[in-house]
Amino acid sequence: MNLLLLAHRVPYPADKGEKIRTFNHLSYLVGKGHNVTVFTPLENNDDLKFAEQLSAKLNVNVVHAPLGNRHVRMLRGITTGQALSVTNFHSAELQNKLNEKIKSEQPDAIMCTSSAMARYIFNASTATAVKAQTIRLVMDFMDLDSLKWEQYAARKPWPLSLIFKREAKLLSALESRVLDNFHASLFVSKEEKDLLHDNPELLKKVHVVSNGVDRNSYYPANANANANSDGIEGDLFNGASPVILFTGVMDYFPNEDAVIWFADNVWPSLIQKYPHAKFVIAGMRPSKKVSELANRRGIEVTGYLDDILPHYQQADFLVAPFRVARGLQNKVIQAMACGLPVLASAEGATGINCVDNEHLIITNTADDYLNAIDTLTNDPASYQRISQGGLELVSTQYSWESENTRLEHILEGTAG
To answer: CA 259, 263, 267, 271 torsion: positive or negative?
Structure first.
């Protein structure tokens, strides 16, 4: 298959949600012998370096072009009545390169990551060429961005709320256009798919392709370290205080909002009861508000990490106290793969085929978190049960191999 992949961000390094997903898709397809060309805009010099590294690592052709000044891109969106997400990722130079590629070499399929890349397809000359050559179009929405902006609007003051409402409305219209015109659309979970209008004909073109976990990158520190015939052993159950972990890109609003809520509402009571407890916020680009949390007793803000695995393996719990969330939280299934019990809000668990108190614990209030940590800290058997339940869930349901096989069939038009 000759495939063009339009990625809104360079899918390398695989260090955040959409990059992890797209990189694993790309790696699989290349490994299966498909001819893949990546088209991606560049926001800065780091992106250029990452594009070159991606090309070398997977031996793929990466076509790129700079985006230019961000303020100009935002202004262009406002003055032309387009969604800011769309103009933010649109490069006229990259558009021209894509048009030339389609004219000179007919691809079998074009796959876009996020609705923001649909403009490249709906461009007049591109759309004409695609229609004439009957190229299969696949959109990886991942999740419904329009609903994410609605959530933002509900939590932000004016005038940001007004801007976010505008974004939600424009993206919703774009999503509908994509659903009508693309041959197939992908979502990361059944929950995201179920948010669509109940149109039987439209839903035939909509597929769930979930995320997976690379079990070579995420695994327990020692498969036998947590349990023996007598129960659990380890620091947590020998008088030490719990180590609580949160991971993610820390200038991303849902992540920032989650850790600040936890630090304000849960941590004061937790640190009072467990004076030596630690709350580790691990991830790149911490915002000013997140960085300031490190001034509080017991809270550590790491910034960028070359390897997140040691933090998963050294923690006692992962918390996912989201109030704003879409799609599927990679951090949750990664923690499960490391044998780490997860305490998550209903939003944090959304998209994961899990059962409360079997694979993780749903914790929506401050008291929920405090009670769950108390219970698991003082009951080794319960700790082991949740740890093992999460491990088994990831092992049986979150394999990149099976999800990527489904993607391959969708791209080829052979999916049921």
So the answer is: positive
Contact of 270 with 241, CB cutoff 8 Å: no
136 and 8 in one domain?
Answer: yes
Contact 212, 398 (CB under 8 A): yes
- 161 pLDDT higher than 90: yes
| Residue among 11, 10, 28, 8 nearest 20 (CA) | 11
- Whether residue 102 lies inside any domain: the answer is yes
Same domain, 170 and 272: no
User: E strands, 184-273, where?
Assistant: 184-187, 206-208, 227-228, 231-232, 243-247
Same domain, 159 and 267: no
Q: pLDDT tens digits, residue range 89-144?
A: 999 999 999 999 999 988 999 999 999 999 999 998 888 888 878 899 999 999 99
CA distances from 379 to 51, 144, 251, 273, 361 (A): 48, 40, 36, 17, 14
Q: pLDDT category, 233, cuts 50, 70, 90?
A: very low
Question: Encoding tokens for residue 22?
Answer: 């797209």
* Cα end-to-end distance, the chain, whole Å: 19
Question: CA of 406: how far to CAs of 25, 81, 133, 193, in Å?
Answer: 11, 37, 25, 16
Please report, as a single letter, which amino acid is at residue 110: I
Assess whether 381 and 406 both reside in one domain.
no
Q: Do both 66 and 169 map to the same domain?
A: yes
Is the distance from CB of 386 to CB of 336 less than 8 angstroms?
no
Angle, helices 380-397/330-337, rounded to nearest 10 degrees: 110
What would the pLDDT profile of 315-362 be if each residue is shown by its tens digit? 999 999 999 888 889 999 999 999 999 999 999 999 899 999 999 999
pLDDT at residue 225 tops 50: no
Are 246 and 140 contained in the same domain?
A: no
* Rounded mean pLDDT, 10-22: 93
Which structure tokens are listed for 336?
């499960």
Determine the Cα–Cα distance for residues 324 and 65; give it in Å rounded to an integer: 33
- Residues contacting 271, CB < 8 A, separation 6+: 277, 297, 298
Residue 265 structural domain: 227-397
Q: 250 with 385, same domain?
A: yes
Q: Is 205 found in the same domain as 121?
A: yes
Cβ atoms of residues 86 and 119 within 8 Å: yes
Tell me how far apart the alpha carbons of residues 331 and 342 are, in angstroms, rounded to a whole number.
10
Q: How far apart are CA 139 and CA 185, in angstroms?
A: 5
Count of domains for the chain: 2
Residue 371 domain-assigned (yes or no)? yes
